[in-house]
Amino acid sequence: MFEIFKSYQLNQEKAHDYGFVENSGVWTYSCQILQGDFVMTVSITADNVSFQIFDLETGDLYPQVHMESMRGSFVGNVREACLEILYQIRKACFEVQDFICPQTKRIMVQVQEKYGNQLEYLWEKSPDTAVLRHEGNQKWYAVLMKISWDKLEKGREGQMEAVNLKHDQVADLLSKKGIYPAFHMNKRYWISVTFDDTLSDSAVLELIEKSWNLTSKK
């Protein structure tokens, strides 16, 4: 559950505005979940995010939420409610850490300002891959990846960042430098665009806008 904070860092000013209280380097925030049945207390330090759940009526700790062996619809609902709060906190109080490529940071700042979406790191086994998706239909319009150059150009060494974007003229674009057949996605409808300044910022943003439009329908 806490892998969603990988590659993010706390913005203390935003955390304070959100309602966190700082004490000896620990930022703490509490809220009710599940219609007031439980209280969730989130604690953030320089290198860790954790939370505890308490029964509002009795004040007892509810440790089952952290026990992987515990299954069932009830504990599942509690975990889902907790994850929703954690996503809200990440969106309001955290910022993405620096990227490998300067262009990546420039593009992501503009994308987040224009569309209001933050990168979501969804996969524990792929911690360097994140998505941008629509608030409404939840469809992805961009997949940011930190991968080796060899994934796009055989034999080329080094790490780089690229984004997968949807397009309706894939074949026409593949002749352009900086645009490749999509890595790990349907190559008929998606492309991979490198963030190494081969394409200008405006050209990349135009491709992102195209992908956003193509994925905006329900």
TrEMBL record:
<dbReference type="Pfam" id="PF04237">
    <property type="entry name" value="YjbR"/>
</dbReference>
<dbReference type="InterPro" id="IPR038056">
    <property type="entry name" value="YjbR-like_sf"/>
</dbReference>
<dbReference type="InterPro" id="IPR007351">
    <property type="entry name" value="YjbR"/>
</dbReference>
<protein>
    <recommendedName>
        <fullName>MmcQ family protein</fullName>
    </recommendedName>
</protein>
<dbReference type="InterPro" id="IPR058532">
    <property type="entry name" value="YjbR/MT2646/Rv2570-like"/>
</dbReference>
